[in-house]
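Ops channel
N.P.: pipeline sanity check, posting one input/output pair.
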């Protein structure tokens, strides 16, 4: 039944049925005219068995549980060439547990707030138009979409530095909280064949989960250069106004390089910036790197094994002895299976080590066993 549902979701709705072949036309010539897909369904599901605080196992302080980190369903509409619209609903489990003190004894009890265990959002709800002018390909996207910054689009599944873990697969920009995962805005992209491109975006800056009721916005520009097919260099600049009265100004930058050699790929990046508040100025600085390898596997049912190691370090308050800088080391190995209709179906195991400079916060180990698929 499950595979029957996947087959139905993976079968697109076409604009028209296949026309009959004219007399004398070869089947190969007819095959060169594929049907235009008008309505394309999308779905994705990720579930993990997660162990958190594993360093506390001897003392019985570790947590072990199963959760759904991503459950999405949506549809893509292509009414005419060069125009498409995408709407995706994201429903996931929320950590709604809380600790409540009991009387005056100092004891506490952990209570699950079941009414808030699930939450729904629209990470994708946009309209996009594409066009060409000579060697340039233009794209204009308006609505709720992925946030534009650095290598944000190189860390999520297909041919990317993906670690099968609820949070370890995130790039440094999102993991540090410098940018939201999705936001409402307008994006313009121009690609010059295979040499690179330019991206310009205006977004709310507060993410897609909150209502924007002020003039504070984020302005982002990203330059992509591919000097050789194996190397891509990116540079990003961000200027933003934050807060209800636009009193805080954010200036941030990012630079990265991504190298591919055979089945291996490597990415290194650095980011930094400052927040200018009316009474204080705070700097931030981070560096990150990831190495991944795609290993072909002989069994017909397996597609590839892609082990990945990622290292990130970020200091949200440079120059201050606050002890809030952190270092994250993640290792994961997603195993991709061959499925019907080319569905990405994978299982994976990951481990993450989190270290902070705060002596009162211990080193934290988390591990995750993930199962996921999407269309």
């Amino acid at each position: 039944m499950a595979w029957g549902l996947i087959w139905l979701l993976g079968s697109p709705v076409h604009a028209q049925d296949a026309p009959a072949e004219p007399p004398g036309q070869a089947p190969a010539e007819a095959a060169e005219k594929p049907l235009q897909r008008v309505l394309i369904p999308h779905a994705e599901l990720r579930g993990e068995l997660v162990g958190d605080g594993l360093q506390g196992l001897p003392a019985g302080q570790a947590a072990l549980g199963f959760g759904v980190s991503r459950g999405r369903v949506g549809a893509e509409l292509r009414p005419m060439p060069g125009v498409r619209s995408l709407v995706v609903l994201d429903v996931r489990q929320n950590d709604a547990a809380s600790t409540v003190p009991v009387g005056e004894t100092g004891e506490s009890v952990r209570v699950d707030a079941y009414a808030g265990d699930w939450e729904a959002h629209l990470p994708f709800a946009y309209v996009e138009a594409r066009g060409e002018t000579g060697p340039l390909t233009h794209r204009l996207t308006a609505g709720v979409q992925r946030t534009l910054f650095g290598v944000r689009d190189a860390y999520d599944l297909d041919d990317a530095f993906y670690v099968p873990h609820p949070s370890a697969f995130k790039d440094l920009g999102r993991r540090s909280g410098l940018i939201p995962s999705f936001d409402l805005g307008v994006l313009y992209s121009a690609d010059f064949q295979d040499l690179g491109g330019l991206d310009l975006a205006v977004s709310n800056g507060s993410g897609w989960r909150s209502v924007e009721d002020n003039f504070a916005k984020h302005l982002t520009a990203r330059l992509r250069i591919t000097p050789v097919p194996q190397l891509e260099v990116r540079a990003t600049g961000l200027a933003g106004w934050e807060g209800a009265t636009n009193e805080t100004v954010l200036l941030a930058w990012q630079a990265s390089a991504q190298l591919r050699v055979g089945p291996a790929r490597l990415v290194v990046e650095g980011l930094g910036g400052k927040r200018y508040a009316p009474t204080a100025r705070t700097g931030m600085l981070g560096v990150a790197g990831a190495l991944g390898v795609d290993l072909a596997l002989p069994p017909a049912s397996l597609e590839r094994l892609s082990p990945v190691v990622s290292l990130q370090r970020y200091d949200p308050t440079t120059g201050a002895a606050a002890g809030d800088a952190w270092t994250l080391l993640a290792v994961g190995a997603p195993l991709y299976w061959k499925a019907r209709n080319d569905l990405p179906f994978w299982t994976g195991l990951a481990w993450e080590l989190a270290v902070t400079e705060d002596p009162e916060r211990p080193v934290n180990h988390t591990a995750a066993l993930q199962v996921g698929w999407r269309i």
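N.P.: looks fine end to end. The two ends are 17 Å apart (CA to CA).
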